[in-house]
Known about the structure:
- The chain is mainly α.
- It has one domain.
- Helices cover 27% and strands 6% of the residues.
- The protein is built from two helices and two strands.
- The chain has helices spanning 15-28, 42-45; strands at residues 48-49, 52-53.
- A two-stranded antiparallel ribbon has the order 1-2.
Amino acid sequence: xxxxxxxxDIRRVREEWVDDIQxxxxxxxxxxxxxxxxxxxxxxxxxxxxxxxxGEMTCAAEPLIA
Length: 66
């Protein structure tokens, strides 16, 4: 999950950081969930990345029975 800070000590995430995370996820077959760009005005920056919303989730693991 890519989710930059969005509180008192915020800073906007760089697109190349998200690119690197998505590339690593694709390379390893891991789900990619992009939560937000961060910043003060999240309603303005949103959670679109490359023109779409990424909300992939991994499958839940089966619980271990002791």
